[in-house]
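Why show two proteins at once? Because comparison is the fastest way to build intuition. When a single record is shown, students tend to memorize it. When two are placed side by side, the eye starts asking what differs. So, the first record is below.
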Amino acid sequence: MRSVVLAGGGTGGHIYPLLAFADCLRRHDPNIQITCLGTPRGLENEIIPAAGYDLRNVPAYQLPRSVNVDLLKTAPRMYRAMRATRAILDEVHAEVVVGFGGYVSVPAYLAAWRRHTPTVIHEVNMPPGVANKMGMKIGGHIALGFPGQLKVPSLAGGRVVGVPLRTSISRLDRAARRAEARAHFGLDPDRPTLFVFGASQGARQINLAMAGAAKAVTSAGFQVLHITGARQDEPVEIPTGLDAPYVTVEFLKEMELGYAAADLVLSRGGAMTCAEVAALGLPTIYVPLPFGNGEQRRNALPVVEAGGGILVDNADCVPAWIEANVIPLLGDRARLDAMGRAAAGYGRRDGDEALLSYVREILATAAQGSAA
């Protein structure tokens, strides 16, 4: 491969696996041309150029989920977006398009289809996102993050490759870095540690539950590292004078340090979170986002069924539940270890390499077809 186009943006769930795969491509060939597609307003504008990759913004629009006036505007909008995207593919002589979802993937899939360029669609959610669904309908090859996705009829023909993870996480030795990580946050080196986080903006229900249970958790001898999120209009007030460290940060760039410090995780059920904690063998309590189409619950359910986690409904995640369930679990080393082994048995750390192998296989097949 000499030129690869990667499409994905809007949220970290699309961007971070894209970047992990870009890093993998570059490790194998430092001279490969990697072109990333995004939109002017997406989070990718902050992340992708900072990681050293070429980002080209194209017009992209949300696909309407129902029949309304926006549906009438979709065709001309998509045509303009597809033409702009195809111009980029032509300019960089793209040999393959790999999409990770988000609105920008739609014109990328359309342009690749019109150009007869092989397309690989990486999907981590159940059911698949709207953009990736459209790509599948026009012949994209499906790469899946988790084995459980094969149960979804539209994904049954996909190849399970795992989720590309940043090497800072995929190569993390938690035990070797535990002392360093706890010292970094000012945590006790020996206390069992609960690592709490929601999305980048925080998770209000989780934050409130932990604030209410903070005294009980720390009085039981446990410490907490809590990413509260950047939502300034909803501050989190953790009690003072606690019996053990309770460290809060709004945002944590070095998630590997949080994972290294942790004995147990309390989090949402985003696909990237599920992939990371399972790969690292971290027992996790999942509090799926109660909105959308229930994909976070479906993301977490397979690892929970494998014994690597616990599910709790958002409405049930209250201080009393934390006190009754989290405190006993933090004190049960044997159970934590068993959950960790089960999570590690479900997760995988080689998603980037497996996806690369799949892409190469598809390109080889396409080349054979052209030669014939």
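Second record. Ask yourself what differs from the first in the token line.
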Amino acid sequence: MHWLPLLAVGPALAAATSRPWGVLRIGVLAVALGAVLGIRGGAPGRELAIVLSALVAVTLASSLASVLRGRRERVLAAVRSVAEAAQHALLKPVPATVGQFQVAVRYSAAAAEARIGGDLYALVPTPYGVRLIVGDVRGKGLPAVGTAALVLGVFREAAYDEPDLLEVVARIERSLARNLGPDDFVTAVVAGYPQDGRMEVVNCGHAPPLLVRASDVMAVEPTRPAPPLGLGALTGELPSLQVLPFTDGDQLLLYTDGVTEARNHSREFYPLVDRVARHVSDEPSHTLAALHDELLAHVGGRLHDDAALLLLRKPAVANSTSAADHQASAGSRLASPPKRTNEAAVDVRCDSN
């Protein structure tokens, strides 16, 4: 008789995983089992009635809890779907190939349920070459998401309109100066590839990109440090344009501080430069997949800050491409009008026939 109240554990636990009808079925089974055991054990009728009434009450309460849990799950699913749609609108998927580059992106929000955060990235082909941005908004939550949307919107417009990369940065700076508070700012790296063999980089208070050439990994430190976007008016310093040689096989990795400041249980930072040298390959997607998996293992499975990785690689011109170009040029020569000397040769052959 003293152990019969433990039958209430069944419907109580079922409320966490089962639907209301499943909870009711388990509750009915618990009440029936309690009645059988109580009668066979010779339990007093009054005490048995109290125990069975308690089982019925727990079953009904568990069914109600199951109903409420189902509603919360549906609301959460709807919110996550909206957040996922917002992420696709804000951080548009980047194709594997943009222009003459291979591209890969990895993004992880610290709030896994929200799917979006304050880190931003974009890569767009423009009349002035491929241009990209990777940045980090100060703060978290919806205000950071709104600021990220503002920066990306201005960048996508300015990247098409402005031939000078510094003017693209200046337009973002002016927009943030009008819309941000005095304590808000955005660290960012803006890069562009206007012509073969030349990569332009503008660093505004952000972590230095990593240039991967063969097996060497070098941090591209800014020649003249510049403040983050949104703070230019306070310091009066203008960002500088840095030009890097960028040829076939070179790779450029842009990232946010959520990667380099990730700590393990021993409070050690993630050694990004060493890990890039270990995992670099000719496929940017494979490189970032290995880095991302190792980063999650380093922190124990859950990041405490937003993290973004964008890897750009300029592949070498394949022999098949050269052969195809040669064949196309040969075809164009055949399709062009024959020269006068060829016409004379044809006339000679016709006369001889």
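One difference worth noting in the second protein: The CA atoms of residues 98 and 335 lie 32 Å apart.
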